Structure formats: C-alpha cells, structure tokens
Amino acid sequence: MSGRVERMTSERRGAALILASTVAFCLMSALVRSASGIDPYKTTLFRFIVGLGILGTAAMLGKIELKFTNGRLLFLRGLFGGTAILLFFRSISKLGVGKATVLIYAFPIFGSIFSAIFLKERVGLLRAVAILTAFAGIYLLGADNGNGVSVLGSLGTDELLALCGAVLGGAALVLVKKLHDTDSSYAIFFAQCAIGLWVVVVPANAIPCSVGLAGGFVLVAIGVTSATGQLLATAGYRHVDVATGGLLGMLVPVLNYVIGVVGFDEPVSFESVVGTVMVVGSCAIVLARTKNGSNGPGVRSVHQAGDDKHASQRSDIEE
After folding, report:
1. From residue 16, how far is each of 238, 288, 294, 300, 319 by CA, in Å?
2. CA distance 276 to 42
3. 8 A C-beta contact, residue 84 and residue 126
4. Beta carbons of 316 and 173 less than 8 angstroms apart
5. Which residues of 206-217 are buried (b: 16+ CB within 10 A; e: fewer)?
6. Phi, psi of 182, deg, nearest 5
7. Model-level pTM?
8. Is pLDDT of 151 > 80?
9. Which of 307, 293, 192, 291 is nearest to 250 (CA)?
10. What is the SS3 assignment for 266?
C-alpha cells in the first residue's frame, strides 16, 4: 500500500512540475509575441545564449554533468532543433502566438511519420487516421486569414515556414529518441543551444534593430522562461511516463491560442477553431497510443524533448 501511495505522490509531483513548465513555455511565447518588433534572429540568439549560460553555470557548480557521446547526432539534433526554434519565434511574430503554436506543435505528427520511415515503427490504423486528420486541420488553420477559408484557400509563405519548423521538430524528435541511448537530456539541450547559436549569430548581427534596455530585459526573460520550462519538464519526466507528460504538454498550443485571442486580439474564426481542435486532438491521440503500448515517439514541448537515461523514450523540439 505504501508503495502505491508513494507512486501516486511521485506522479502528482511530476504532473505538477510539467504543468509548471507549460506555464513557463506559455509565458515565453507571450513574451516573444510582445517583442514582435525585435527581429526573430535576435530573440532566438538570446534564447540560446541564456540557455548556454544557465547550463554552463550549473555544470561549473557541479549541479549537472555535461558529457557528450554521440557528437554527430547531437550536431544534427542541434541543427534541426535550433532552426525549428528560430522558425517558431518567427512564426509567432508573423502569424500570432495562437496560430503559430498550433502549427509548430504539429511536430509529433511528423515525428510519427519519420519514426515509421527511419525507425521502422508501426503506425497502426488509429494513428494513421489521426495523422490524416491533423493534415486536414493544418490546412483549415493555415489557409484561414481570420475571415474563414475560401474554396481556393491556400497556405501562405509564413504558414509554410511554420510547417517547415514542425517538420524539423519532428526530425529532431526522432534524433532525440536515438540520443537517449547515449546522451543525457542536459547534453541534448546544450547541443541545441550551441548549434542553434551558430545558426542565428550572423543574421542576428546583420539586421539592424534597436533593442534598448527594456527590450534587453524582455529578451533575457524569454531565455530564462524557456530554460526554466525545460528544466521543470526534465524534473517532471522523472516521475511520469512520456505519454502522460506529452499530453500535459499539449496544453501549450491550447493555452497559447487563448492567450492570442484574449491577450493580443488575434483573429478567430470557426474554421480556425475547428482546425486547432483537429490538430491538437490528433497529436493527443498519437501520444495516447504511445501510452497504451505503441512504439510511436513521445513528446515534450518545441522545448523539452528528453530526460535522463532512465527515460529512454522521452523527446521533443526544445531539448
């Protein structure tokens, strides 16, 4: 009996930590939206710099251990994940926090496709239907301009770039899953920050933009909330399985959609709501199938994929 109580207490603690990480990621997204006047290269650069600073300081103080084993996969994970974060931040400034987050958070769908192709994982009928439903929802949401979707409606450049971010996030998800056999979540997160920094450092300094003192504090806050969300999720995944954590993490696009409409007066239509429900619901089905014993990829935010070696199937864009 005591063992069962301890397990339930541990699971509740993990769920609370992941919910706290969800709040941190939503706050980060809102800060990015409020800083839309700052080019996304600088915003992303600060996110990586702060992440490196926090991880480096923690390692220096002996709080965490940074050890790198599979350098090639870590590099690719950093390249794909870092570029996905850049496209996520760009999409928030161009499309709004709600629409951008829903499109980017479709990455578990692409992760399932890549897992089936490269890891030979079984998709199954329900997951296949969920994937097709998600694509239909992506079209409804992406082709909507706030006034509904016309018969000839098509995805614009900004929507396509957001989907590119989701595709890269799905590829990063598969890489994270492989990396959990050799590297810790801290090493994976560090790789994203380090390689992502090289992706944005030149364009961030090539585009003239006056940030100012207030803007500087906002950029630092974006980095801090992102790293805080990552570390909270890492701690939470020690107490819950990947599917449970992933389902809780899918609250991010739902809450961000509400934040966009209520906080930033972003346009909303019947089609966009239906598309959002289809995408988020399909991703939830994919994750629920993982929990029920399927081999599909787990997820932890555009920000949190992975944990320590005691959780070999934990993954996401952000880590």
Report:
1. 12, 19, 25, 14, 19
2. 29
3. no
4. yes
5. eeeeebeeebee
6. -130, -30
7. 0.84
8. no
9. 291
10. coil
Return the SS3 of 121.
coil
For residue 16, pLDDT over 70 is answered with: yes
Residue among 291, 253, 201 at smallest CA distance from 95: 253
The encoded tokens of residue 98 equal: 């709600």
Q: How far apart are CA 318 and CA 229, in angstroms?
A: 10
Q: Which amino acid is at 240?
A: V
Q: In the chain, where are the structural domains located?
A: 2-291
Whether the Cβ atoms of residue 101 and residue 92 lie closer than 8 Å to each other = yes
Contacts of 261 (CB under 8 A, 6+ apart): 98, 268
Is pLDDT of 130 > 50?
yes
pLDDT one-digit tens code per residue, 54-71:
999 999 999 999 999 999
Of 5, 13, 15, give the one whose Cα is nearest residue 243.
Answer: 15
Express each pLDDT in 281-303 by its tens digit: 888 888 776 555 555 554 444 45
Round the CA-based radius of gyration of the chain to a whole number and report it.
18
Q: What is the pLDDT of residue 304?
A: 46
Q: Which residues, including other chains, have CB under 8 Å from residue 280's CB and lie 6 or more apart? A: 102, 105, 250, 253, 254
Contact 269, 146 (CB under 8 A): yes
- H-type helices in 96-184, by residue range? 97-104, 107-118, 125-142, 157-179
User: Distance (Å, rounded) from C-alpha 17 to C-alpha 83?
Assistant: 27
Angle at Cα 59 formed by Cα 54 and Cα 64, nearest 5°?
A: 100
Distances in Å between the Cα of 106 and the Cα atoms of 38, 83, 133, 149 are 26, 16, 11, 20
Distance CA 134, CA 268 (A): 19
Across 168-185, average pLDDT: 87
